[in-house]
């Protein structure tokens, strides 16, 4: 993986998380090029991460084995159409854009091997998880290259049908924001219960970290872990009953359905054409 040369097209939040993770994993900074219109962002990337930056998307791709598209879905079409003439047959294209499907990317790029993936921002700490889907033309070696890049910043799962990336987006792509929201809400509730803000923040954040580590490391499922916190007629029981009575599970289901629908909607609004 560290032998690969990667060009990032767009170097915003998600690209920076991936670049930071790849560097931490030992990829030489000289192997990473990023194209980014914001001068402030380019300066920051060169100064803090030591990677090459460009203003011209085509120039960034010149020596790349892998071209990683990390611009917003809304500008993907114009970026791909402009980039297409600069791409070479051997280059693998990976897109991390929500909702833009392989058929659209291939149509715009005139380039067959495309892997779509849905990473998440904990990639910055090598704690990401990505869903991956490969178009039919992607070779086994290219599949391995794509997985190696995403595995360098966490772990990855392949999905057998492209539309399942809508579900991956709803669960893990957008997922960090849901946990941040819960930490925000718990902190605010703690303050209303009388804690000072710093104490409430520390309690909520560290509880999230401890619970997540238990969920990942324990040999029992999360329902069992929850039961172990929940004494009959105790405090947790009171809170869980309140959550359930307020429709917590259907609320989560509706939220994830909204995210998946938005992912599918982006494909309809912005795809093809
Ligand atoms: N932020 C997240 O948690 C995740 C984002 N994604 C996907 O990653 C992509 C990027 O999202 P973010 O990093 O959040 O957005 P962002 O806005 O932080 O980054 C996009 C970058 O593209 C640059 N850009 C704009 N026009 C450009 C052009 N013509 N050529 C090259 N670069 C250009 C912008 O200056 C910006 O730095 C989106 O498609 C999103 O769906 C996927 C998974 C998670
Ligand atoms: O909110 C979004 O559209 C992107 C995709 C998944 C996370 N952020």
TrEMBL record:
EC number: 1.5.1.2
GO cellular component: cytoplasm
Domain of life: Bacteria
Gene3D superfamilies (alphabetical): NAD(P)-binding Rossmann-like Domain, ProC C-terminal domain-like
BP GO annotations: L-proline biosynthetic process
InterPro entries referenced in this protein's UniProt entry, alphabetically: 6-PGluconate_DH-like_C_sf (IPR008927), NAD(P)-bd_dom_sf (IPR036291), P5C_Rdtase_cat_N (IPR028939), P5CR_dimer (IPR029036), Pyrroline-COOH_reductase (IPR000304)
Transmembrane portions of the chain: none
Domain Pyrroline-5-carboxylate reductase dimerisation, residue spans: 162-265
Chain positions recorded as NADP(+) binding sites: 9-14, 70-73
Pathway annotation: Amino-acid biosynthesis; L-proline biosynthesis; L-proline from L-glutamate 5-semialdehyde: step 1/1
Pyrroline-5-carboxylate reductase catalytic N-terminal domain residues: 6-99
One annotated GO molecular function: pyrroline-5-carboxylate reductase activity
Family: Belongs to the pyrroline-5-carboxylate reductase family.
Protein name as catalogued: Pyrroline-5-carboxylate reductase
Protein species of origin: Thiopseudomonas denitrificans
Gene name of the encoded protein: proC
């Amino acid at each position: 993986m560290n032998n690969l040369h990667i060009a990032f097209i767009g170097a915003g939040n998600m690209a920076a998380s991936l670049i930071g993770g790849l560097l931490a994993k030992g990829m030489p900074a000289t192997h990473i090029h990023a194209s980014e219109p914001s001068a402030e962002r380019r300066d920051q990337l060169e100064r803090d991460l030591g990677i090459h930056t460009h203003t011209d998307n085509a120039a960034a791709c010149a020596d790349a084995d892998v071209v990683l598209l990390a611009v917003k879905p809304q500008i993907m079409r114009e970026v791909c159409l402009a980039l297409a003439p600069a791409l070479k047959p051997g280059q693998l294209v990976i897109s991390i854009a929500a909702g833009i499907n392989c058929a659209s990317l291939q149509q715009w790029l005139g380039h067959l091997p495309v892997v779509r993936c849905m990473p998440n921002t904990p990639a910055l700490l090598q704690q990401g998880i990505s869903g991956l889907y490969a178009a039919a033309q992607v070779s086994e070696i290219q599949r391995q290259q794509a997985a190696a890049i995403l595995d360098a910043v966490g772990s990855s799962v392949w999905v057998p049908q492209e539309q399942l990336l809508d579900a991956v987006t709803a669960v893990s792509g957008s997922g960090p924001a849901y946990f941040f929201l819960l930490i925000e809400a718990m902190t605010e509730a703690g303050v209303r219960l009388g804690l000072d803000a710093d104490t409430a923040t520390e309690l909520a954040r560290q509880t999230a970290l401890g619970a997540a580590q238990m969920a990942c490391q324990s040999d029992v499922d999360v329902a069992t872990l929850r039961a172990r916190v929940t004494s009959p007629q105790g405090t947790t029981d009171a809170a869980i009953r309140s959550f359930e009575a307020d429709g917590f599970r259907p609320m989560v289901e509706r939220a994830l359905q909204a995210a998946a629908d938005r992912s599918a909607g982006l494909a309809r609004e912005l795809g093809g054409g």
